[in-house]
Amino acid sequence: MKIFKGSFFEIGKQQGEIYRQNGLDLTSIKVNKEIVSKQLDIYKKHYPQVLEEIEGIAVGGNFDKEKLLHIYLAVEIVGFANRFKMPLSCTIFGIKNSKGTFVGRNLDWLPITEKVMEPYKREAEGCYKILAVSDMFIGSPSDVDNKFLLYDAIDVINEKGLFVGITFAYGNTWSYGLSWKELTRIIGERCATVDEALNIFKKIPVSVPKNFFIADKQGNMVVVEHNSDKYKVVYPKDNILIQTNHYIDSELSNIDRVLIETPVHNTYIRYYETLQKINMVKDKFQLSDVIKILGNPNFYVCQNHEIRTIWTLALDMQKPEYKLYTDVVGSQKEQDLIV
Question: Could you give all domains of the chain from N- to C-terminal order, each with its CATH number?
Answer without folding.
Answer: 2-78 (no CATH), 87-337 (3.60.60.10)
